[in-house]
Amino acid sequence: MVRDQSDKGPSDSSSPPLPPPSPRAALTGATHPLVIYCGNFLFAYRDYLFPLLFMILLLSTKPTLPFGSERIDWWMDVLGIVVVLVGQGCRVLAIGFVDNIGRGGHQKRVAAGILIRSGVFAHTRNPLYVGDLLIVCGLVLIASCYWGYLLVLPGFVGVYWAIVLAEEDFLGQKFGQDYVSYCQTVNRFVPKFTGFSHSLTGCSFDWKRVVRKEYGIACTWGTMVLCLLIWKQWERVGYAARTGIQELSALFLLLLVCYGGGLWLNKSGRLRS
Question: Is this structure's pTM higher than 0.90?
Answer without folding.
Answer: no
